[in-house]
Amino acid sequence: MPRSYPPEFRRKVLDLVASGRKVAEVARLLGISDQTIYVWRRQHLIDTGQLPGTNSSDLSELAAARKRITELEAELAVHRRAAELLGEVTSPKGGSKPST
């Protein structure tokens, strides 16, 4: 899983680049990938409306929704399996109903 940096750190990195420092220099100085800085800069441009794309708040909502969907699918699978097991236990053998 990629390393996560606090928003304040990202903001400071982008400020350094915006002040005229080269991305490679800032990346080397702080020990992070220059590609990481490019991704942050692109996302900042999207968030500020300068580039088209999905903004950060929408991305976090989407990630939370996907996580919840995964949880619900797992819960549904458990319920389905339980229903299968209970059906096997309670259904009469032989497939015919008992006479009353």
How large, in whole angstroms, is the Cα Rg?
26 Å
Number of strands: 0
**The biggest beta sheet, please?**
none
What would the average pLDDT be, to the nearest integer?
A: 90
Notes on the protein architecture:
With about 100 residues, the chain is mainly α. The protein is about 70% helix and about 0% strand. The protein has 4 helices and no strands. Helix 2 (about 25-30) packs across helix 3. The longest helix is centred in the last third of the chain and has 35 residues, at about 55-90. The radius of gyration is 26 Å and the shape is elongated. The termini are far apart. About 0% of the residues are buried.
Spell out the blueprint of helices and strands.
Blueprint: H1 7-18, H2 23-30, H3 34-47, H4 56-90
